[in-house]
């Protein structure tokens, strides 16, 4: 199952937890859910949905990877986005228990946009 996520900023986070949960098959009681973003300048993470922490994540990534000064920028000016997405990774795996995502109390699934604004395709695969 795939769904699209529209982003509105160059570097931002979008909570996709509910969208992922909606894709779970009704007959799946236990299993594994793998969420994958089909882009090299976006990532997925499991983290707390707290606005200040989300801002901290964006600031951390900006501080860790400078916006400019990379060889790939000569091609299309987005090397920073590729490097930030590489640090985080394109997927997240979450267990399914009792027909629901078995996330911890404070955990949510986020798409991390590193080269927006764009529309991103997210793929969800469930194995039961």
UniProtKB/TrEMBL annotation:
It comes from the Archaea. InterPro entries: UPF0047_YjbQ-like (IPR001602), YjbQ-like_sf (IPR035917). Gene3D superfamilies: YjbQ-like. Belongs to the UPF0047 family. This is Secondary thiamine-phosphate synthase enzyme YjbQ. It comes from Natronoglomus mannanivorans.
